[in-house]
Write a structure and sequence with these properties.
Blueprint lengths: L2 H35 L5 H15 L3 H16 L5 H27 L2 H9 L4 H31 L11 H12 L2 H33 L7 H13 L10
Helix pairs in contact: 1-4, 1-7, 2-4, 3-4, 4-6, 5-6, 6-8, 7-8
Length: 242
């Protein structure tokens, strides 16, 4: 490829990274707000949060992009630029999936932790901020990592708006060179490199957070084995009777 075509591809990579960061930030905010709301004591709050989750999980992200970009402007008399339209559609859609991750992690916290907060006269917000979230967030990271990779791949959908992301730029280069195999191989490799970097970053974050709450993910298997040995009387590493 010529220098000009490579620059076009790199511009597409930058656009994809921008879209990924913005939509991930929106999806994270939506995930925590809706996920926490789904554990609220008031049924109406749980109902509204659940309704949002079911609607956005049950609709196509591609159709949502079309709806935000083509349907909202005539309905409300304003126009979103492609970047913000893509951010809104992807953030709201993937945020609905993320809210289930948050809800599940919060519900997985030992009920005794909640009861301890009540015994200490903590408000619901204090229990959430000081007790539940510090224990639940590290358990969310692997699932959020998978969701982030899915979001990265979902950014290719914005090419339907004519937005110059990686997929759109790769298609322009393919049309210019009439070389599908070479161009799309490059595009696949670029997506893989970005996804691999995100995976390593999220794994590092998971280890750091788990150490912050007294858990080392590298030693969790050994801890489980030690607990099994303690409760069953069977040696963890083939130990015998002295």
């Amino acid at each position: 490829m010529t220098k000009g075509l490579w620059e076009l591809v790199l511009q597409g990579v930058w656009t994809t990274v921008q879209l990924l960061v913005l939509s991930a930030l929106l999806a994270t905010a939506v995930s925590f707000v809706v996920g926490v709301a789904r554990t609220h004591r008031l049924w109406i709050v749980r109902f509204v949060a659940g309704f949002y989750t079911e609607v956005f999980r049950g609709t196509s992200a591609l159709v949502m992009i079309f709806w935000v970009f083509f349907v909202l402007p005539p309905a409300f008399g304003w126009q979103l630029v492609p970047m913000w339209a893509g951010t809104l559609a992807l953030g709201l859609t993937y945020g609905a999936y993320g809210s289930e991750i948050v809800r599940g992690a919060l519900n997985a916290v030992d009920p005794a932790q909640r009861e301890g907060g009540v015994a200490l006269s903590f408000t619901p917000w204090q229990r959430m901020r000081l007790i539940l979230l510090p224990q639940a967030v590290p358990e969310m990271i692997p699932s959020f990592c998978n969701l982030l990779i899915e979001l990265l791949k979902g950014t290719a959908l914005v090419s339907v708006m004519g937005m110059g992301d990686l997929a759109f730029s790769g298609n322009l280069v393919r049309l210019a060179l009439q070389e599908s195999a070479e161009i799309y191989t490059y595009v696949l490799l670029i997506y893989f490199v970005i996804a691999f970097a995100l995976t390593r970053l999220m794994r590092g974050l998971e280890k750091r957070l788990k150490r912050g709450v007294g858990k080392d993910p590298l030693n969790e298997a050994g801890a489980r084995e030690a607990k099994r040995a303690e409760t069953t009387g069977v040696g963890a590493a083939g130990g015998g009777v002295a």
